[in-house]
Amino acid sequence: MKSLTHHDPDQFGHFRTRELPALLIILGIATLLRCHLLGAVSLWYDEACSLRISQFPTSEMLDAISRDAHPPLYYYALKGWTICFGNATQTVRLLSVLFGVSTTAASWWLVRELSTPKFNHPFQRRDGVAPLLAALLVAINPLHIELSQEARPYTMGTFFAVLAATFLVRANRKDSSHKIPVRPSTWIAFGVCTAALSMTHYYGLWSVGAMFLFAAGVATQRGAWRGLMASIAVIGISWAPWWQTFLFQHTRAVDQLWFPPLTTNSLLETVFQALAGGKHSGLIEILIPVLFFSWFAIGIFFLCSRETSDPLIGLCIISPLLTVILYCVLIRNILGVRYLIFAQTFVLIAIAILIGRINKRQFQIAVLVSVVAWNGYWCLELTKSRLDAAKFPGGMSAANYINEQVVDAAPCIASSPFVFTLLAPHVEAKKNFIVEYRREHRDDLLSGPSIQQKDFFRTDSILQTEKPSKIWAVDVVGLFGKSVRVKLPSDYQISSEARFPERYGYRIDYVIREYRLIEEQLPARSFP
Fold first, then answer.
1. Phi, psi (5° rounding) for residue 509?
2. Domain limits of the chain?
3. Furthest-apart CA atoms within the chain: distance in Å
4. For the whole model, what pTM was predicted?
């Protein structure tokens, strides 16, 4: 068979047709892995916050987002999704599954654009191994699978990150005269994707910065400055109405959010977990520094490559991590495993490209098998962890119990905003479900955005009028190492109690107690 070149477009078209069935199989695998046990575990706190805020009326929703620590795009996407498909646990998470599978497809497209015959890359092969490998590695990566199973903005961000890089590669493509023509639509599409990324998760700004750094280099070519200015205009327009809110959020986050100071061990461990699906095994301690330096080695290799768009991949690998490290050292620690998902996606893409560039087929297969086995091992660990958590779905069980038992007008009081936020989306008697809260919720970044003024009260206020004969209380044991309990007057006694252990996100037990007013304390009734 003839090798594919830019002089043989028919063969290349046939080559892409042959590639489609394999891509569809990979997308099917990605979907199955992400849907497995999707609704088997309860929403954890961050997911519940996303769902709660997205269910507010539009005006209140924007106010709540402004008091949160995240940009607005995902919340509005989730709001539209739940309006169309409902707010069941599995349904809410399907939006992230959709973006996770879309990231898999976008990774294939990015590497396909890099390996188009016009680039004449050395990893251009007639079996299309590099693009399919990129899709496969994203499809089976345990961190991508885990974050695709959460109602959070991470996979939405990875989708826009890869899509933005793809449009930038297309904008950087040279024509037959070896000049880079102006492609307004491509540059505008790049600007839209970077704006969407930055409005999905603030950590995406590090990746946006890396891409615009590469784009500035492209702009030095004749005629490319207009395209760059067009993309900057798009992202500037999107940020103009949000800038003041961002500054307000940043100030609150600096004042109220705290992470332990960054140490060498925590840095190495975080990078290791980003490449090991968020997990850590004490059996392979030696691999922790190895993977950390491998991350930078891969990035530097692509950064120094002479291939046209390789430096873009290198920048998207190194720049976000390096910038975050500098921020952590100079200002405060903000490093987290899941926050590295945007840069980690490009590490997976780079590994796929490197495997595709191996000329010896046997060595190529050996490396591929090793990488797939690595991901397979951590996928198995993820599955075991999720199966264990599925045995104790305390949040879902507690909400179902409330829906079945609290059928009258008796108030049901959550002991903290944490408990209220976790259960409120799935409690049917919303008017009776309230939270005991004694602070100003608008000043509280951690628990304030997901609750409204009408949701909380002081216990004494509900007892100022005629005391209800029955009160339900939702307490929690093990929350941050302590118990949180609703405090009621001594004339209320426990008449029943149910306990629901939760092992996903936090190891806590929900305790639902039914209190009844002691008979002799009941006010006398007059009869006609």
1. -125, 125
2. 18-239+255-390, 394-521
3. 102
4. 0.91
